[in-house]
Amino acid sequence: MKRKIVSALVCAAMVATMVVGCGSSSTTTAPAEDATEAPAEEEAEAPAEDAEEAPAESDASNASGDVITIGFAQVGHESDWRTASTKSCQDVFSAENGYDLQFVDCDNDSAVQLEAVRGFIEQDVDYIIIDPIVSTGWDTVLTECEDAGIPVIVIDRTIDDSDKYAAWVGSNFKTEGLAAGEWLKAYAAAKGITEINALVIEGSTGASATIGRTEGFKEIADREGWTILDSQSGDFTQDGGQEVMESYCKSYEGKFNVVICQNDNEAFGAMDAMTAAGVSYGVNGDVILVSFDACTAGLEFVMSGDITADFECNPLAAPFVEEVIKTLASGGTPDKEVYMVEHWYVNEDVVPSIEVNGETQEMTVVTQEIVDAQY
Ligand code: GZL
Fold it and tell me: Average pLDDT of 265-279?
């Protein structure tokens, strides 16, 4: 199986180039009212070694000159990361670029997401993009897409009970969790911290991002003999992070020195809760605060020292999805997996690099320039 690894920075530059003058003829469907819990699921495999060049800048229309209709079933609107992911697709698959984007915000509801995909089949769109809220329960509807002759491209989270899709473009979430653990080991040693008592605020239950980050960090925690006092879902939202952290501050008062938030919005909520409870955090605080995503606001808190380290998850997949579509349109076979390159951000240069999956990875000290260039 061929794999490709693409750079987040090049991707961001490409999206910035493509944004100028883009409108969109997309149709947006209002999200459903309530979200439902999702069943558990597996994690994606480790990425390949070699990184490949990012695609050439998108030319303004497809070869045939006809409008390409794309149905996009998005997870929801729960985080800054999600907003950036949606914008990446809306900027690339715009009317000016020769597309008609049918966008559905599934509001973290798996039933709504399956219904949206079936709606795209009804509409007989040319391509379907799915960011799967959960990674199981997909084979039936993907078979229906296959029977209808509509190629499916999966982005971000993984589908694990079917391979009836043309390609997946996303991140290795377990690697992100491993990186957080390896960095924490090195950081604690450098700071003379000999005992780790961690609280974890997980993402949405059943999401591959949650499963992978949890698995990766726990692998290091088990290896190092750390204590994970508790691990509850904050559903990738700021309110969720605050609610869980408020409860943690009561239940584990004075017993924890690390908080792992599985995305930035949860970290923002956790910060509010710890401040209200009189718990100090960050580079100069009693609690090491670790986050994932590294959105602009998250990196601003890394630069201020409130978040000690932030492990990036790159949301700007659309230019690489367009590359898959062009390959399919020209009768080619796209790479089955396209991995986005991630960067690990810190406030201070205490740990210059870490080793993850046998590979040395640099830690990046956040500067204003990096913040300004982020998504
Ligand atoms: C990760 C993505 C996660 C982000 C969250 O790829 O699925 O969902 O980490 C988002 O911010 O809600």
Answer: 98
